[in-house]
Amino acid sequence: MKITAEQEKSIITDILTKMDVSPEHAEIVAEVTLDADLKGFTSHGIGRFPQYVKGLKSGTIKPRGDFEIESETDSTAIINGNHLFGHYVAYKGMELAIEKAKETGIGLVGIHDSNHFGVAGYYSDMAIMSDMIGLVFANTEPAVAPIGGKIPILGTNPIAIGVPSNKHYVSVDMATSASARGKLLEAVRRGEQIPENVALDAEGNPTIDPEEALKGSILPFGAHKGYALAFMIEILAGPLVKAAFGTGVKGTANPEEMCTKGDLLIVINPSQLGDVEVFKDQVDEFIAEVKATPNVFIPGDMEVRNVKKHMEEGIEIDDKLCQQFKDIAKELDMDIKDIFSD
Ligand SMILES: NC(=O)c1ccc[n+]([C@@H]2O[C@H](COP(=O)([O-])OP(=O)(O)OC[C@H]3O[C@@H](n4cnc5c(N)ncnc54)[C@H](O)[C@@H]3O)[C@@H](O)[C@H]2O)c1
To answer: For ligand 1, atom 17, which residue shows the shortest CA distance?
Structure first.
């Protein structure tokens, strides 16, 4: 079945409101989750939502309250997320980084004791909308073994970079693993295999079975280069921001454990380095050069195409996910038949 963007937002906010989540937090969670599905990152869209419901039920995600700025300078801040929704804390952290970059040219906000925040690119998009460059890094529960090893020590450690332009949406948003863990969870739910060269089983052998892969490890993208990048992100989004690192990172995949991951948000304000309009024109000039060859895409093109498609055609919900929503609604004594009919 398919649902519309408005239906996705309303079902998420309704369930969160019923679970006593503050309206502002619920609105941001719904907004970021919908952004993932519209852009085609279904591994981090509504399919991930039942995990947040489990987190709320087990007390690892706090429905209300506020984060705390633990330390601050004109251009930096460290935030304690107080175990609120990761989407809310990252949204507020990005707002703060943008404010700092407006004043000083650069804003850097580190976050610890927050929760899974969905798609990294939502937050770098916020910088783009202020004519600035946004960089977002996070670490996650271990899923990736170092090259040569078979025990997961690194997370799927996403990176997003968004750049303002006059003509294009310019954004890279990706896991540093060959596959996001959410894609494995999605394959299990849908009874599908995963592509080759993505994961190893617990014995270190290649596997296309997502359940075996979840017991084993996901490969880094791009062989040693992806490993090296994930390694660095583990440090940038770990010890640098007072968060856990390596096997100490918990709670991004298992919602019943308190989350110890970290986020690093950096905003660069081009207008403090020169004329921002000249900068954006040069970005467009570069893109024109890249796109001079037919069928060449830039980072961000897929998302633009997907948003258009999903706004027009709706968002696919598989049978198992549909059933998960019916179960959640039944437990909360909610009527969701207008969206998920029998
Ligand atoms: N919250 C977390 O802990 C966490 C962890 C891992 C991943 N994620 C999220 O998962 C999502 C999916 O990650 P993924 O690794 O599966 O993404 P992916 O492999 O689909 O790669 C997406 C990126 O590649 C770009 N791209 C795709 N085809 C291209 C082409 N032909 N030319 C140029 N660029 C192209 C896209 O524009 C996009 O920026 C991301 O939103 C990421 O933030 C979140």
So the answer is: 174
